[in-house]
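Moderator note: this is an archived Q&A kept for reference. The question asked for a predicted structure of one protein chain; the sequence and the answer are reproduced below.
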Amino acid sequence: MINSVSGLAEFSKYAMNSVTSAEKNRNATFEDMFQAAVNLINETNNYTNAAEEAEMAYALGLTDNTHDLMIAQQKASLSLQYTIAIRNQVIDSYKEIMSLQF
């Protein structure tokens, strides 16, 4: 009987390690998702800045290429729409999680 109790202590050591490991994995996953969101926002900001620079260059007469101006504006617009769509999905997911009852 005493041998079986000491055997259980060995299992509890593994259980504690798995809980710690699961928490680390959860934190790493959140950090990865957060970093991806930050990268997406930075990329959107870069496209928006590039479009504004192209608009300024066209307005000042430094360039007369409307093709490049339209491409820069379209990239900025699509990137912003994508970022907003992802934000909306995250908010909807958050609301759904908060409405769950345990």
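Archived answer notes: Helices lie at 2-59, 66-99.
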